[in-house]
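User: Teach me something about this protein's shape.
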Amino acid sequence: MKAFTISTALALLTSLVSAAPATTPHEARQFQAQITFIGAADGVFFQSVPTDGSVFSITNPLSVSMIRSAGGATCTFNGIDGSSTTVVGAQTVDVGPPQTQISGSCRAF
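Assistant: First, the predicted structure itself:
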């Protein structure tokens, strides 16, 4: 009886494990990157953005002079006057020249 109970428990456990959805390593890394946009005179705004490589819009008109990321992704931001600013991991990068940011794209490490 004891062997039957153990066999049944193992069979049930095996079926539960095999029924779990499979995730690829890339799917497991998906999260929302936390981005801080910093402008002159203490102007600042925050945006949580996808890290799946999709292009997202930035609608705040603040003229941005620095972009800070909390980390975990590589992000590229596009300015209204043609700037392209890339932030890799947890760092703060200057935007040159300062300008409104209009779009971006991030990819998790």
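Now, about its shape. Strands lie at 32-39, 44-50, 52-57, 63-69, 73-79, 84-88, 92-108. Confidence is low (pLDDT under 50) at residues 12-21. If you'd like, I can walk through any region in more detail.
User: That's plenty for now, thanks!
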